[in-house]
Amino acid sequence: MKSILLLFEFAFRNIWRNPKRSIVTLSAITVGICSAVVLSSIARGLSRGMAENAIKTLTGHIQIHAPNFLDDPTPDKSMNLLGANEISFLTQNGIKKIAARVRIPGMAMSERESYGLVLVGISPIEESGVSFISEAPIEGRMLTSESDPGIVVGQDLLRVLKTSVGKRIVVMAQSSEGKIADRGFKIVGAFSAELRSTEKSFAFIGRSVAQEMLLMNHNVSEFVLRIDNAEKVAPIVEKIQARFPEFEIKSWQELEPLVMALRKVQDGFLIIWFFIVVLAVSFGVINTQLMAIFERTRELGVLMALGVTQFQIVIIVCLESFLMLVIGVLLGNALGLCGVFYLRHGIDLTAFAAASEQLGFARIIFPHVFPRDWLICDLLLFVMGILGSFYPAYLASRLNPVEAISGRA
């Protein structure tokens, strides 16, 4: 035990034999780890924001549909409202919120323009905590009930239709009988959303009004479910599918393939970035150790002449690299946390809103600490750094004591 502590003390002192060189190496490690930490947090915050936007918009965590509704969303592919036993089953299996909707493609026409959209019949009470519409800023008012005769549209749709709150528009859609159903609505409110595409794509009316307009009786197009943890949706989907085999049960990952594809691309990008950082820092550590060995050739020769074994020489050199990596990683993580804390209020992408919305990015990105990324980066650095230090350690252990002391090594 004493010999191990002695080797640690010896290695720590050797680090500071040349303070300038050690500080430069530590700075490289610190900056590399800090950049990896901050970049990974921003990237995770970006993907998390995309997922949250998708879930909050209208997707939810889980959706229940009649067979083939997603391929052909027509009113005839509808379902009866859930009974008490079905709702009890869902709540006992992790479902916190349930919203039943009528949801079909339609056309909105004002006095000047027309535009295709998705008509959504909702119960305002059920939508609370399920979708964004219950919390969205509204010019005018929100629907008061599922039988409210008004319509709520997005601010961007108002601009497209060249109309305003208080005026009337006509909405057309296919009924359950395959005929065209149309109805005039007074615009009672205009909502604002994170993405302009959301403001342009959806219009909300009362669920009962939609059922009457589309001749759906009391049927609905979908049930949208919310749970506590979006990442633990798979086992719940399996249970619901087993209970309702006659329906299609989809998780948000299946309903939002673009978000999942971008997540996979992001994972690959982060791994590549970690390897770049680790390789750059590892070469810096190797270079530092090689220079240190060439400067301390005589000292190493004296140690070997005094009985220090080749294995102990390898341990000393590796310990120097290990200690330098420990100090650099701790400083890098600490500095990275400071960077994440500095960005806690978010990175505003409003200036690039048009481009970011094409990919579904939120206008403000909030960094999200993902411990697994940090752990992977730190472990990669330790492994590569220690493995890289074996080469200079091997060179040091192969020195001839006599030649090293005489300066001929």
Summarize the topology.
Blueprint: H1 2-15, H2 19-59, E1 62-65, H3 84-92, E2 97-109, E3 114-122, H4 124-127, E4 138-140, E5 151-154, H5 155-161, E6 168-174, E7 180-191, H6 196-201, E8 202-206, H7 207-213, E9 222-226, H8 234-243, E10 248-251, H9 252-255, H10 257-295, H11 297-305, H12 310-342, E11 347-348, H13 353-358, E12 364-365, H14 371-397, H15 401-406
Structural class call reads alpha+beta
Q: Report, as a whole number of angstroms, the end-to-end distance.
A: 32 Å
Count of the separate structural domains: 2
Read across the widest sheet, the strand sequence of neighbours is: 2-3-8-5-7-6
Beta-strand proportion:
15-25%
* Shape type: elongated
Low-confidence stretches: none
Q: Biggest sheet, open or closed, and with what strands and sense?
A: 6 strands, mixed, barrel
Describe the structure.
It is built from 15 helices and 12 strands. With 409 residues, the chain is of the alpha+beta class. Strand 2 and strand 3 form a beta hairpin. The mean pLDDT is 84.
Keywords:
409 residues; six-stranded mixed β-barrel; two-stranded antiparallel ribbon; 15 helices
